[in-house]
Write a structure and sequence with these properties.
This protein has 3 helices and no strands. The chain is mainly α and 63 residues long. It has one domain (7-62). Helix 2 (27-44) runs antiparallel to helix 3 (49-62). It is elongated. InterPro entries: TPR-like_helical_dom_sf.
């Protein structure tokens, strides 16, 4: 069975990651959500630039 994951799913995961990072300061959890979003974006052929930006910021703040 073929399953298409909607692009909105990736956007929601990025937003959840942003909330973890900015509101809770939980960059490890944010990174997990960004990576999940990236997988969906790659499968769908979507733009990943915003996700990589947020991922980079999270890694930078982790250290």
């Amino acid at each position: 069975m073929y399953l298409c994951i909607k692009p909105e799913s990736a956007r929601i995961l990025v937003i959840i990651g942003i909330l973890y990072a900015e509101k809770k300061g939980d960059y490890k959890s944010a990174i997990i959500f960004y990576k999940k979003a990236h997988k969906i974006q790659e499968k769908n052929g979507d733009d990943t630039s915003n996700t990589f930006t947020e991922l980079g910021i999270a890694y930078q703040n982790l250290h």
